[in-house]
Amino acid sequence: MTIKNEIPNCEYCFVKNDIFRHLTKDETDVLAYVKNCNTYKKGETIYSENNRVAGVYCINEGIVKHYKTGTEGKEQIIRFSKKGDIFGFRSIISGDLACTTAKVIEESTICIIPATHFIKLIKDNSGFAMSVMKLSCKELGFANKYILDIAQKNVRERLAEILLLLHTNFGVNPNNYLKISLTREELAGIVGTATESVIRLLSEFKKDKLIELDKRQIKLLDITKLKRISESY
Question: Does the predicted model carry a pTM greater than 0.85?
Fold first, then answer.
């Protein structure tokens, strides 16, 4: 981790995150003063599960994965955070220890809002508090859907759905490959299966001309058929 000398301007950064649009000019100025900003290299851990969270994290650049560690150290990836997202706020509000580990998968610039200041904004600004509540409900809904998918969809259906989700959330580069580049182990960690199963299914998808592979890069060739597979349960 490196402390960033040039701290991102909150006023421009907030355009990427709807929850901060309720802050007044004075509140934004104070927030810009009290926050810290760090640069994390790929592979660095921001915080680990069952530990205290230092504050609320806001991503200016980069991608972070959130996962729980299962038996034999296997990662179960819960979700990703990208540019404009915040995370860590549920632990701050509830006072609980972190329920997941946050690790950088693409070099990231992240601002940290002190816990006490984030709570103060919630208490003082009802519009901001409502936005945080809506974000919490949205993430809870996503978590409920994820649990349902794990319970009712087979691995092939879940992989198709994950590929579509990555396409929607991260988009594609100029060559139409997914902007997010994941290892086969990380893909398996999202789908909730063995790495060997993901490798086999990716080969099947490639053979069926649903996707194109170039090492870790993935291009979706037939989104319609992938949707059909993901919704076939």
Answer: yes
